[in-house]
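Example 336, ligand protoporphyrin IX containing FE.
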Amino acid sequence: MVKILGPVRFIATALTLVLALMIAAPANAQQPTSVNPTAQAVKEEQLLQQLQRLDGRVTIPDQRAGTLIQPAGQDWRTFHQVTLHWIGGIAIVGMFLLLVIFYAVRGTVKMSRGRSGRTITRFTPFERFVHWLTASTFIILALSGLNITFGKTLLIPLIGPEAFAALSQWGKYFHNYLSFPFALGLIFIFLIWIRDNIPGRIDWEWLRRGGGIVGDDHPPAPRFNAGQKGIFWIVVLGGTAVAISGYYLMFPFYAAGISGMQLAAIIHGVVGVLLIAVMLAHIYIGTLGMEGAFEAMSTGEVDLHWAEEHHSLWVEEEMERTGVAHRDTRHAAARS
Ligand code: HEM
């Protein structure tokens, strides 16, 4: 029995070895000799240095989905996670601090002669509707946009990941759907106010004299002064840029390839945060910064003294339009 076991054990061992070699040989043949199968070879950075991009094979029709990593994508990630944070942080926090300092130094710009008790119509109900449509959708677009940029860093530690996920989902719905009334408001703003926002020589004079904001001067101004014209063009041009780039992002790869998508995202993020900073200044002037300004957009009526101080040429035009030509009788055209 012992004599038989010896050769059987020998044959079994030999067979096992042959089998192991048969399995191992094709596997070895598939491995390129240059690749080190240890962790070193699979480090992302090393692969990128050698290959510049990582493509896989996909069976879905869109072959671009097979690109896993590409150098421009790495740049884009740095932009989104670092550069945009700096640009947005400096612009928005910087503007906020500037306004706090400005308010501390200048305070509210008062009507120098006090209220007259008489008002003049500044904006029609349709103009106010268009303004508030654009402004209210802008505020929600701004908050939901800032959540995409800063929410992960600022909100997760405060409200936790579940609440942040729910908030972001709703934010994304709002951002997508409110873009349409915002874009519509922007088109109307352009159409109804372009006539009064063409820059002219009078605007240089207004700027040279500090616009009545810096100092106590009240330079003559038409319906919109140079500062308001600046805001108009920033809103129209900046709003158009965020709207067009936003629709590129909302309908990915319909009109642009990967580099076009990255450009759209960069334009959208940068113009978006800069617009928010500018709008902070606009909101400040319309509320805390100037006595009597907010009622122009709430009731549509402004005090006559306010109108004469800030838009004297416009008041004269209105008087002529309503048939009251000279200064003493002008108040007759204003509502008591
Ligand atoms: C027609 C108007 C707009 C459209 C179609 C639009 C669309 C979009 C889309 C699709 C995204 C990408 C969302 C995602 O990554 O899931 C986005 C992000 C963003 N939007 Fe808008 N948006 C519009 C207006 C605005 C406005 C007015 C602002 C600012 C006041 C704004 C600020 C932002 C910001 C800050 C981001 C995040 C950028 C980033 O972190 O990369 N958007 N928008």
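Summary: The radius of gyration is 33 Å.
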